[in-house]
Specification:
With 339 residues, the protein is α+β, with helices and mostly antiparallel strands. The protein is 41% helix and 14% strand. The protein contains twelve helices and 24 strands. A hairpin with a 6-residue loop joins strand 17 and strand 18 (240-241).
Length: 339
């Protein structure tokens, strides 16, 4: 008589397992039971193997090594995910737009772009986020935490990407090269700005005011100006902002706080954007090139002022006598004569 194979099925979700051990282990996902505790940080885990993998964070043990690049990992699933970088395998596909991903977590985060779901909420200002890492990064604007430190000048940063960009100041690394004139740049956006001096491209137009802009970032900013919703208000001067980060930067004007310091000359700035502009002086980066006289500039404003000398553009008009000027400073000096 043929023996009937016993089925190990979860009574809650009806998932079937090959043996009773795996069924019992699975049941804890429904009960919320976490019987395994780390003796170092007292964090609890559902499974013994999860605790074992976690403890390697404390011991520094990384027993799993990639055969291609010899990078070490604390657990086998992390190694498997990493190996897809070498193989190019992307087994997780979006059912809506068919985009492929290496990790299931990346697919889950991507799906929220289609569903509009934002399950992670800031406990301070109630702002919602689609992915947890974005919320964690946002929280640092409230706490002031900067966990990433430059080993050369000890400057701290909110996220790893900003630290990576900053370190190129020390290494002089310029990984982005112009395909036309072979000039190198440390950041991608500077290369994109520079490329427009070759193409004269102006492709971004505001749907509200029809203004043509040469950078998508500048297109997004005017769109926020067209919207009346500016929920972030300065408690000092009542000025309102549509983006919280803009309010945080604005407040430094009142406090006089200078958080961003140049590692070369120690000059301090209240805004990171001003520091980045300043650092180009030391890097000798001049992404804005005049197509008429070949003169180069490190800042867009100086480039635009220079171009007015060629095209005789005079956008600054006196409200008293209708006299026009190519530079704002000249208009200011002229206005004094009416006082």
């Amino acid at each position: 008589m043929k023996e009937v194979k016993k089925v190990h099925q979860c009574p809650i979700c009806e998932k079937v397992f090959p043996n009773n051990y795996k069924l019992v282990r699975h049941n804890s996902t429904h009960t919320g039971e976490k019987p395994y505790r780390c003796s170092v940080c007292l964090k609890d885990f559902t499974h013994r193997y999860s605790l074992r993998n976690h403890q390697r964070i404390h011991t520094g043990e990384k027993p799993f090594q990639c055969s291609e690049c010899h990078k070490d990992f604390t657990d086998k699933p992390s190694l498997k995910q990493h190996q897809r970088v070498h193989t190019g395998e992307k087994p997780f596909q979006c059912s809506v737009c068919h985009k492929d991903f290496r990790q299931r977590g990346h697919l889950n985060s991507h799906m929220r772009l289609h569903t509009g779901e934002k399950p992670h909420q800031c406990s301070v200002c109630s702002k919602l986020f689609a992915v947890k890492c974005a919320m964690v990064k946002h929280m640092r604007y409230h706490t002031g935490e900067k966990p990433y430190q430059c080993p050369d000048c000890l400057k701290d940063f909110i996220d790893k990407s900003k630290l990576k960009l900053h370190q190129r100041i020390h290494t002089r690394e310029k990984p982005y090269q112009c395909s036309v004139c072979s000039k190198h740049f440390s950041v991608k956006c500077d290369l994109e700005k520079h490329m427009r001096t070759h193409t004269q491209e102006k492709v971004h137009q505001s749907p509200e005011c029809q203004k043509i802009l040469t950078n998508h970032t500048f297109l997004v900013k005017p769109l926020t100006l067209h919207k009346e919703n500016k929920p972030y208000k300065c408690s000092k001067c009542q000025k309102s902002f549509s983006v919280e980060e803009s309010l945080v930067k604005h407040l430094k004007i009142h406090t006089g706080e200078t958080l961003y310091k140049c590692s070369e000359c120690q000059k301090s700035f209240s805004r990171e954007a001003n520091l980045i502009l300043h650092e180009k002086i030391h890097q000798d980066e001049k992404p804005y090139n005049c197509s008429l006289c070949s003169q180069s500039f490190s800042q867009k404003l100086k480039f635009e002022n220079h171009m007015r000398r060629h095209n005789t553009d005079q956008p600054y008009h006196c409200s008293r006598c209708l006299q026009s000027y190519s530079h704002k400073s000249n208009l200011v000096n002229h206005m004094i004569t009416h006082i």
